[in-house]
Structures are given as C-alpha cells and as structure tokens.
Amino acid sequence: MSVIVPCYNIESYVPETVTSLVNNARDDFEFLFVEDRSTKDKTYEALLTLTKRLKNSRVIRHEQNGGLATARNTGIDAAEGRYLTFLDGDDWLAPGYLADLVDVIERFDVDFVRTDHVQVTGVERAVHRAPEGRRHTPLDPRTSILPVDDTTMVDYPYAWAGIYHRRLLDRGMLRFHDGLKTAEDRPWIWDLHRRADSYVVASLRGVFYRRGVASSLTQIGDVRQLDFFRSFDLVLAELADDPEAGRLRKKALRNYCVVIAHQLLSRGRFERSIAARLKELAAEALGRMSEDELEEALVGMGEERVHMLRRIRGGMKGVAA
Question: What positions does the domain Glycosyltransferase 2-like occupy (predicted)?
Fold first, then answer.
C-alpha cells in the first residue's frame, strides 16, 4: 500500500504525523511525503530528519507550490502500491489503522473503502460518521449519491477517509484536477461514485483530522477559497454525459448552492475586493441555473440562505425557504 502525505507549512505537526505512521508501518507499506514548497517554516527539513526512522519512506519536494490537488497527484504518480490512501500532513492515524484498512479492502475485494473519522478542534474530539448507513457490505457507489435533500456520500468528500484500489487509477480515476486550491475533492468524489463498480463503508475511526489549523486554507480568507466555483463547475460538466444526468444534476446543484450560501454568509473573513469577487462569481453561477432548477435546489434550505441567494441572483420570489 502507498500512503500519500501532502505537506505545506506544517513543521510543528510533522513529529506527530510521522510518529503515527511509524506506529502503522509494515514492510509492504510505502510512505510518500510531498513537500509543496513551504514558505513560512522548515517543513522540508523537518521531514528529512524525522522520516529517517520511518522505513520505506520518501520525501518528494515540488519546485514550486502547486496546491493540495497537485501535491496528491505527485504522490499518486510516484506510488507503487496495489492500494493507495491519503493523509494530510497536519493529521495523524491511530496505531494499526492502516492494517485494518487493507484488511477490509482485501476481504471484500471492492474498488474502494470509506471510513468514519475523528475531528479534532483544540482539545475536543468528535466522531464524524460517513453518511451511508449500510456498513460492511459491498455496495454500488451510485446508490449512495441521492437523495437530493439529504446528506449522502458525495457530501463526505474527504480523500483521507478511505483506501482505493490501483485498478481505479488504471481506469482513469483517483487523480485530482491539477491546480485546484480548495474543494479539490468534490469532482473527485463525484467521479468515484459515478464510475466505480463497488465500495464498502467500514466503521473504522482511525483518522484524526485537525480543524482550525492556522495554515489550513479553510482558515485563510484569500482568493484561493474561490476555487470552489471551478470545482463545482467541473462536477456539473462531467455530469453532462452521465446516463442519469437529470437526477444527479439536481443533487450537484443543491450542493453547489449550499456551499455558495456558506461562503457568502462567512464573507467577512475576506478582504473587500475578494468578497466582491465572491458575490460576482456567485451571481454568475446562480445565473447559469434555470429558475426551476434553483427553486428545487433551495427548497428547505433555510430562510437566511434562501434570502441571500435570491438577492444575489434576483428574480426568485417563488422559492420556498
């Protein structure tokens, strides 16, 4: 198995991340650290030092920063394992978790496995369950996309919450859209659930995901945050030729509207020029949706969000909150 670990400005977290991988190491596991040209600390130097005690590990350094999607692709291109998994450089794993992952995917012989995870905010920890309730049984990934108005597996896009068979890569899946700075996992998870043949949801909780990290893009209100527009436009474009495009597009549009509303409601963290660009791109995205599509997407979304999206686009007086 190949474990791909993108790293950017996370020097202080490297010791815990590497130690957790030491506690998961096996002769048939390889660990690929992709250092994405950190600018604020000595992440690269820390990796070179600390990975000396992690067998079958390599540090690959980008010549220039490419973002999370590109860093993961670099790791994918270098990976030699039959299975691939991901870990963000500021997160960590429970001892023995990787062996459990391999056991599940080998036992069921599916294209991929998805897991629960533990969200860490300061000293607080909370278990976040994958939305699919059918556990430890092979499923058709398409059956976990709908319904439109409920949280489903395409709303749980975290690449690090699972393990993936190399045959997906051979079929043109698993790679991310190069250059995406945020929401890079949205087109990725949609592609998996539309095109893969089988998967299993396992009740494993060995990934510890940090929230509120200062260097995380979710905490930084800069223009990179606006890449979510490109991500969802890619989802919609790739749905166009799907045999169930009509049904699945409704789900994608609702997801898009939810994220647009979330970003608009938290636009206070952006500089004025970026907030203005956010509103401009939101109006354009909403304007590309038909009146009927928007009415269906926004039903039940809540008065505050519906009112804001109505106002940004205009001409949506009939939409129910």
Answer: 2-143
3-state secondary structure of 29: coil
* Predicted model pTM: 0.93
> Span 2-211: which CATH code?
3.90.550.10
- Two tokens, residue 262: 């979330």
Which residue's structure tokens are 């056991």? 103
pLDDT tens-digit series, residues 172-192: 999 999 989 899 999 999 999
- Token pair listed for 220: 């930084």
Sheet bearing 57-61, strands edge to edge: 57-61, 30-35, 2-7, 83-86, 162-165, 112-115, 199-202
Domain residue ranges of the chain, discontinuous segments joined by +:
2-211, 223-318
Q: In the prediction, which pLDDT does 29 show?
A: 98
Average pLDDT over residues 132-141: 98
CB atoms within 10 A of CB 89: 27
